[in-house]
Amino acid sequence: MPCTTILVGKKASYDGSTMMARNEDAGSGSFAPKRFVVVQPEEQPKHYVSVLSGCAIELPDHPMRYTSAPNALPDKGIWGEAGINACHVAMTATETITSNPRVQGADPLVQGGIGEEDFVTIVLPYIHSAREGVERLGSLLETYGTYEMNGIGFQDTDEIWWMETIGGHHWIARRIPDNCYAVVPNQLGIDSFDLVDAFGRQQGNLCSRDLIDLIRDHHLDLSLENRNLEEETDLDVRAVFGSHEDADHTYNTPRAWVMERYLNPGSNVWDGEAADYLPTSDDIPFWRVPEHKVTVEDIKYVLSNHYQGTPFDPYGQHGPDRMRGAYRPIGINRNNILALTQIRGDLPEGIRDVQWIAMGSNVFNAMIPFYTNVDRMPAYVANTGKEISTENFYWANRLIAAMADSHFAACASPLERYQHAVHGKGQELLQWSDREAAKKKPEELSRYLEESNQRIADMAQKETSDFLGKVLYQASIAMKNAFARSDA
Fold first, then answer.
1. Of 38, 229, 245, 404, which is most buried with the most CB atoms under 10 A?
2. Distance of alpha carbon 62 from its chain centroid, rounded?
3. What is the CATH number of the domain that holds 234?
């Protein structure tokens, strides 16, 4: 699926937490209603069968409890997308990425393999660290193959790893430096790879066991020098495995450009003839040190971005008309869910893990936090169904976006107030609950956190309902059949 990802190391985040966030976007012309739930060990299947590919896998015994953001309608499978397990390990899957025909010829995709539908369900309940997540999924890819190219994030208290599939059975992964953030649109993101480390100490690089043979045997290395791959510490991954399509310059590279433009505004020249990077640049870095520590609000902003402040903003009033909407926004009409997993290593284990959720089009929604050390999530986020209802977060925000989009200028101020209110009150309730949780006995904690989650959901429902009313009013008074005279 089309998606956008940001990963933030613990020394780059505002509070020392690791943070990992991704938009799940539906394909063009479609939407996928989403739920946010807790999956208990007894609910986890032992014999797993993929709906789309029919791939059958026997899963290990003793799964852990974990959170998941599955499709509300199960006809196409689970699509768990993002979650945190009971061992403080998070996973986001997947960022659909690109490759090139040489890779597809060297290691063809496997139509009966595994894919985004399956990854969270068959990996997250069984891993105890981010590195172990890479290793488990890598083993499954080598065994069963995949029918699509994907990027997958793994996170624990200390580390974040980003993994990308290469063809049907191969993969690479890099550990994100603690003081950096990384961004990935729907394009192979890793820009360099240390083969010496991957086949040696494996401190920051991991890959499938025969990756060097794949590169050498199928002439994937495009460097002009005749290099010894066993000694290569800076492999140009994008040249070897990535795509080089004109479509990348309207669909992918602009998203990386606008995220880094926001988080590193003074580090480079981003606009004009003297720009270091343009929306069409192929060499935008995979990771970099931000100019300030990255907050939850920063992540929500970049994953909602529609090129505001540039001529490319579809809602903009500045610049030539031909430039508006020239590039694919991050905040797009077909955002299904934004999931941010935050593991706060400086807090006690019982309250360490928080998953932030926004549903519907990100330009018009807000993000709310939930503790994951619980047995169930509030109905407002868990009970999304086929029937449209303002009683759940997904459909309420889908309705808001559909109306506010056509009345953006009129809705901009109440939208800003809505988002500030939800984010501010969410942070307030979370911090208050953190303090109160310290007073609870261990056997009381999970129940208390469920009550805290319900308070947060109630707040979000009230604020969302109020904002929906404001948007409905603006849309109603601007109807085309309006007439100024009101009585006889």
1. 404
2. 27
3. 3.60.60.10
- Residue 161 domain-assigned (yes or no): yes
**Which residue type, as a one-letter code, is found at position 338?**
L
In a domain, 417, yes or no: no
Residue 16 lies in a domain: yes
Q: Which two tokens stand for residue 376?
A: 């169930």
The C-alpha atoms of residue 354 and residue 370 are separated, in whole angstroms, by 5
- Full domain range(s) for residue 257: 3-386
Q: What is the DSSP string of 279-340?
A: TT-S---SEE--SS-B-HHHHHHHTT---TTSTT-TT--SS-GGGTT-S--SS-TTEEEEEE
Phi, psi of 23 (to 5 degrees): -85, 130
Structure tokens at 275: 């720009």
Q: Answer whether 237's CB lies under 8 Å from 205's CB.
A: no
- Token match 């599939």: residue? 165
Does this model's pTM top 0.85? yes
Asked if 113 contacts 147 with a C-beta cutoff of 8 angstroms, the reply is yes
168 and 145 in contact (C-beta within 8 Å)?
Answer: yes
Q: What is the pLDDT of residues 414-473, one digit of tens each?
A: 999 999 999 999 999 999 999 999 999 999 999 999 999 999 999 999 999 999 999 999
How many separate domains does the chain show? 1
Examine residue 452 and state whether it is found in any structural domain, yes or no.
Answer: no
Quick: pLDDT tens for 149-197: 999 999 999 999 999 999 999 999 999 999 999 999 999 999 999 999 9
Res. 404: pLDDT tops 80: yes
Spell out the residues 6+ positions from residue 56 whose beta carbon is closer than 8 angstroms to its own. 47, 48, 49, 50
